Hints:
Layout: H1 4-9, H2 14-25, H3 31-59, H4 65-105, H5 111-117, E1 124-126, E2 129-131, H6 133-142, H7 173-183
Antiparallel strand pairs: 1-2
Helix pairs in contact: 3-4
Amino acid sequence: MLSKERLLELGIEDEKAEKILEEVNKDYVPNYRYKEVKDNLDSLNEDIKKRDKQIEGLKKHTGNKEELEAEINKLKEENKKDREAAEGKLSAIRKDNAITEYLYGQKVNNISVVRKLLDADNIKYEDNKLIGIDEQLKTLKEDETLKSLFKETKMTGANPRIPGDNPEKPKGLFDVVIGREVDNKDFNPWG
Length: 191
């Protein structure tokens, strides 16, 4: 994910970095948020199909008032249970997404591993706030064996030089191969 720190590392000025991030993030929707909305839409579409079938079923009971009322009450109870189940599922998805978003904000190196280490049952999600996650993360950060999950690690390594680069840089493998090709036209580095 693109961050202001990364843009500053690339040599972009502070004001321009903010404008770039604002423009990039304007239409960006995180994957977990998209999944939440899609699951909600799928659930609503299933409910609509189920209700359409229920209406068709009620048309069969047009002659008997008691049977019709009993069927309506039965369907009301079923719909109430289905609604509660769907709300519970959506609430669990929102909690899950909030935890993921929180871990992104904490600059966790491996979110999937940290999620498995967290006790989700002891984390509450109320009024768009997570309760109980800070204590668990603090405990994980204090564990010496898990420190690497929370540190910002920067990958380093040698980059091969491209001909025409600054000649004061030390030569890499690429430069040696190119140099041999220039010196010996019949040289084949691949065998």
